[in-house]
From TrEMBL:
UniProt signal peptide: none
Stretches with biased composition (Polar residues): 75-84
Organism domain of life: Eukaryota
Protein name: ZBBX protein
Chain spans, region Disordered: 37-93
Matches recorded under InterPro entries: ZBBX
Biased composition (Basic and acidic residues): 53-62
Transmembrane parts of this sequence: none
Length: 93
């Protein structure tokens, strides 16, 4: 008997030891290997995604052309000028 042929089921507080059939053992081992490979692939994709995001962030930081900077004076748009004049005229009245 091999100890790997047994599994403990959480049926009771102490657990119940059940002997698995050889077919079930092979099936579980194959599933374990498959899950491990899928896990490695997902971790690889996650590392690649993080790397791409880090690179894109550095590129955005380096370009800074589209970065909004507060506190800079700029000429008013025509609509803003009209609203400002209306407000001034209303205050005079």
């Amino acid at each position: 008997m091999n100890i790997n042929d047994f599994v403990i089921l959480p049926g009771s507080k102490t657990g119940t030891s059940v002997r698995l059939k050889p077919k079930t053992v092979r099936k579980l081992q194959l599933e374990k290997v498959q899950l491990e490979t899928e896990n490695e692939e997902m971790e690889k994709r996650l590392r690649q995604l993080k790397s791409n995001m880090r690179r894109e962030k550095e590129e955005r930081k380096a370009s800074s052309a589209y970065h909004w900077k507060s506190g800079q004076a700029r000429p008013m748009t025509t609509q803003a000028q009209v609203l400002s004049q209306r407000r001034d005229n209303n205050n005079k009245v």
